[in-house]
Fold this protein.
Amino acid sequence: MESITITTNAPATPRLILTLKGEGRSAVKATPSFVNFGDVTEESAPPEQHVLLKVETKRPVKIALPERRPNRRLKYSLKTVTPGREYDLAIRLSKPYRVGAFYQYIPLTTDDPRQPTVQVRVRGRVVQRIMLEPANVRMRHLPPGEPFHATVRLVNNGKRPIKVISAKAGASQVKTNVREIKPGYVFQLQVEAPGSFTPPPRGTTVDVKTDDPKFSDLTFTLLPIFRPPPSPWQLVNKKAPSFSIHTLDQKVISNATTQQKVTLLDFSAINSSGSMRQVKELMAVSKSFPSSAVQVVLVANTLGVTYTTDQLEAVLKQSGVSKTNAAVSVDKTGALAKAFNVRTYPTLILLDKEGRVASVLAGERADFATRVKNDVSAFIAGRPGQNSRVPAERMLRVRPTQTKKR
């Protein structure tokens, strides 16, 4: 509902309010617009679902299923109930069922320009007849001396009851206990381990045996505590990792050559358009700094694509990189990126005149040039930069840029 105020010169009615009220209606209404098959086992036969498509306008509307490649999950057909007025969409699952959740749209077309398409949403989940939930359990941080406990459910979605014969972990420190919740159909597998227990990187397996001929052996994994990968922010205000690299013109850049100058280590993927746009910005802003106080080192990664030296120089030239304004080194193995905990391209790491990591700028940024200019000016003057005070969590929110292969 909307209102329009009209001002007049009539003393009796200086203001008039005109209220507009309407109702938006679609040309075609789907009932239901959302179809849920729920949980389906590999051996069950869920009933066919039907959606009624009803034309809401006075003018008849023709509805059709466009020609599309076969759907692996669903089979559907459209039947005319009343020409131009009502249609029946029949939906069923395609066999063999594939284990896993699905969420799909069934598109239909109409000859009404106001609503040229109609979409019906379909969802469901195909589950194993006998399954473990969850399939993995992860250790967590606990107070000293407190044991670790976790519960995994074994669910029998079939018609015939089963028995759990045993549940045994691959590590002697891990103890298991089986508790029957719904006889023959739902079981709790209780896991206990010392809080100090550390599974191997790929986890410790727990083998479960049942009397079912098909699902006689099931497995779930006890995983170690999740530890986030190291971040370049963890190096801020610390001495830079020891490194020594060769540039394209055979010069050596190392910790020793970063003394007495502010050094900009730019980690970029040269076959990423986002990285190279930021390299171009860096080259432009670096012109405002004296070469005696600042040096730019471009650490290029080709993401597995092979470049000749001429090809590499041609790509860099397009972003304004030359031998006079930047030293270029190719980090083929990613060893230098690993040493500085670089997890995404582009990432700019600024080293102060004492060779410490003073600032990190990760990912593409709209304020990149301003940040670089402000931070470098501060480091030349011996002051902390603005970016050196940004919390470490920021790195975790940076996404890798889209890359293209040659």
Q: What stands out?
A: DSSP finds four helices and 25 strands in the chain. Residues 389-406 have pLDDT under 50 and may be disordered. The first strand starts at residue 2 and ends at 7.
